[in-house]
């Protein structure tokens, strides 16, 4: 309670707060969600070291992560395509504290990467992308914005360690 | 005054589990079918707004509203979510169109209960956190069993009467392609089945199923451009009673009664029984709820048990109820169940109900309820 001063009134102590709470309950909420057709094939691809997407011929959009339909044209996608596993940093941030508010030894660099798909070109509004860690960049690279537009490439876990998860890509490396 | 028509409906699923499709892919499939049914409309061009009925705890995603637009064609268009049964979304869509602000509105609801590993715990989480949840009731069905008992006592309804309803509705379910839980049972088997929470036995309680359903509604001017064989929404109403059990009338569902009164008034109906060639689609996820609803919405009186015996609610009776089966045969796809009833009524009026078809069906009364422990009901009156 010491963090802010109240004008008038009597502030409640921690103990008093506890006394007021009558019932507490914990949600027992567990789900097992189907990845579906698009994500299942995407994760299968990650296991094999490829980043897969789908393309809509009507608007030219490539979806990574993939969808079985194009939300813009509302039609089924035309086919599957492969990213080269390379791309460029669209935007990046440096985080200094962990999710449980502990200082990190080394800042974590997280970026949105605009992925290359051979044969397709994209603007800066709709593009196939992935959000991931950048492992060989520093917070200085982020602060100076040097990292923006940097070419990056996926660094894969060894095949036997891949599980069909986004973490099969260990991180992206600046090339 | 703007009139509103249902111009298309589509669905996906109605099976106990759907491991091959994500909920988004299921909804996409249902939407695609609804838009084709509406005359091959392009939602990106032809639909002005979208309403989605879903509930975060069922979804396993908080702020699940944000997940609604893309699989129904609603990206970058007006989309909002109602935390309620699908029929409540229909009420919203009707109001939106009648306001004159929108001509064509799509409504979506889906449920994938097979993906909720702790379903009864999620249901428990809807109980009053101070007064009811700490009781840690052994059966989640106890709350409905209490209502069932109060209803049966007030109208002198026997367990056999519930049985007559269950036998009838389960038999009707054999005529539907969406009724994956349908099977025929006789009254003797019913009477001998195990109690879950007295007076409700396993046959009185509907199972779950996964489904996605989409409906397209349009103003009369737009609708007439698509078809001249239209299903009109003549009346709609919804209401919620107080949540606390001890303050509620458990014998009659007052929320259903008020919803029905509003819907009948809007439709200009004095007595619902006067509707010609009527079909009734109602929420029967608990057998007693169907009977309680029939009384609450003016389709039966205190002598409902006699009506059941004489077959008034049978397919060949004066007031066919769930003529292609209901929740007991289809299962309950959570918030999509009201739209499942609407879909069956819509098919009846379109003459497309297959072997469940009631000849010359002309009017339909559709009832929706939010289920477990809730006191929210909706009524929609359809006519062709
Ligand atoms: Zn497209």
Strand order of the largest sheet of chain A: 8-7-6-9-10
Q: Based on CA inertia axes, which overall geometry of chain B fits? A: globular
Distance between the termini of chain A: 50 Å
Spans where pLDDT lies below 50 across 5 or more residues of chain B: none
Structural category of chain A: alpha+beta
Q: What is Rg of chain B?
A: 19 Å
> Which chain pair shows the most residues in contact?
A-B, 23 and 33 residues
* Full CATH superfamily name of chain B: Thiolase/Chalcone synthase
- Examine the secondary-structure arrangement and name the CATH architecture of chain B: 3-Layer(aba) Sandwich
Query: What is the number of independent domains of chain B?
Result: 1
Could you explain the architecture of this structure?
The complex is a heterodimer of chains A (175) and B (384). By secondary structure, chain A is of the alpha+beta class. Chain A has one domain. In chain A, 14% of the residues lie in helices and 32% in strands. The mean pLDDT of chain A is 91. By secondary structure, chain B is α/β, with parallel strands linked by helices. Chain B has helices at residues 23-37, 43-46, 56-59, 86-98, 119-124, 142-155, 159-173, 187-192, 220-226, 254-267, 287-296, 304-310, 327-330, 337-350; strands spanning 4-15, 49-53, 79-82, 104-111, 195-197, 200-201, 210-219, 231-240, 278-281, 363-369, 376-383. In chain B, the strands form two sheets. A nine-stranded mixed β-sheet of chain B has the order 3-2-4-7-1-8-11-10-9. Chain B starts with a strand and ends with a strand. At the A-B interface, helix 2 of A face helix 1 of B. The complex binds zinc ion. Zinc ion (ZN) is lined by residues 56, 58-59, 61, 70, 72-73 of chain A. Zinc ion is lined by residues 56, 58-59, 61, 70, 72-73 of chain A.
């Amino acid at each position: 309670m010491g963090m802010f001063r109240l004008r008038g009134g009597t502030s409640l102590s921690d103990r008093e707060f506890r006394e007021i709470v009558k019932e507490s309950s914990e949600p027992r909420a567990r789900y097992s969600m189907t990845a579906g057709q698009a994500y299942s094939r995407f994760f299968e691809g990650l296991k094999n070291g490829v980043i897969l997407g789908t393309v809509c011929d009507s608007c030219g959009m490539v979806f990574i992560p993939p969808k079985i339909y194009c939300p813009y044209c509302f039609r089924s996608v035309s086919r599957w395509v492969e990213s080269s596993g390379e791309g460029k940093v669209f935007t990046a941030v440096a985080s200094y504290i962990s999710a449980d508010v502990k200082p990190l030894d080394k800042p974590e660099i997280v970026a949105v990467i605009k992925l290359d798909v051979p044969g397709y070109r994209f603007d800066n509004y709709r593009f196939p992308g992935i959000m991931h860690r950048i492992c060989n960049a520093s917070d200085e690279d982020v602060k100076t914005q040097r990292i923006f537009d940097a070419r990056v490439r996926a660094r894969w876990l060894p095949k036997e360690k891949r599980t069909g998860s986004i973490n099969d890509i260990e991180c992206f490396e600046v090339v | 005054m703007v009139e509103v028509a249902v111009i298309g409906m589509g669905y996906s699923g109605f099976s106990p589990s759907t491991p091959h499709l994500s909920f988004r892919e299921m909804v996409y499939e249902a939407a695609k079918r609804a838009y084709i049914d509406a005359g091959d409309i392009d939602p990106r061009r032809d639909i002005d707004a979208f309403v989605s009925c879903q509930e975060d705890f069922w979804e396993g995603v908080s702020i699940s509203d944000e997940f609604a637009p893309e699989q129904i064609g609603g990206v970058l268009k007006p989309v909002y979510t109602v935390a309620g049964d699908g029929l409540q979304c229909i009420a919203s869509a009707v109001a939106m169109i009648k306001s004159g602000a929108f001509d064509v509105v799509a409504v979506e609801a889906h449920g994938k209960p097979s993906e909720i590993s702790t379903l009864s715990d999620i249901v428990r989480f809807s109980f009053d956190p101070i007064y009811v949840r700490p009781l840690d009731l052994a059966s989640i069905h106890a709350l409905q069993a209490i209502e069932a008992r109060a209803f049966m006592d007030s109208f002198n309804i026997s367990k056999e009467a519930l049985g007559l309803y269950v036998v009838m509705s389960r038999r009707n379910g054999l005529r539907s392609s969406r009724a994956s839980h349908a099977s025929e049972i006789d009254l003797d088997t019913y009477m001998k089945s195990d109690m879950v929470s007295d007076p409700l036995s396993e046959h009185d309680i509907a199972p779950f199923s996964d489904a996605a359903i989409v409906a397209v509604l349009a103003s009369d001017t737009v609708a007439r451009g698509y078809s001249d064989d239209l299903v009109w929404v003549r009346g709609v109403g919804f209401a919620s009673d107080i949540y606390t059990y001890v303050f509620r009338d458990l014998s009659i569902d007052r929320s259903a009664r008020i919803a029905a009164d509003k819907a009948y008034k809007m439709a200009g109906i004095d007595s619902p029984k006067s509707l010609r060639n009527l079909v009734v689609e109602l929420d029967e996820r608990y057998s007693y709820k169907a009977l309680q609803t029939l009384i609450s919405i003016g389709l039966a009186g205190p002598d409902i048990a006699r009506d059941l015996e004489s077959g008034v609610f049978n397919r060949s009776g004066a007031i066919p109820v769930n003529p292609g089966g209901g929740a007991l045969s289809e299962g309950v796809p959570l918030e999509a169940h009201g739209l499942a009833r609407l879909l069956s009524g819509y098919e009846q009026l379109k003459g497309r109900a297959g072997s469940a078809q009631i000849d010359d069906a002309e009017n339909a009364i559709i009832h929706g309820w939010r289920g477990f422990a809730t006191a929210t009901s909706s009524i929609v009156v359809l006519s062709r």
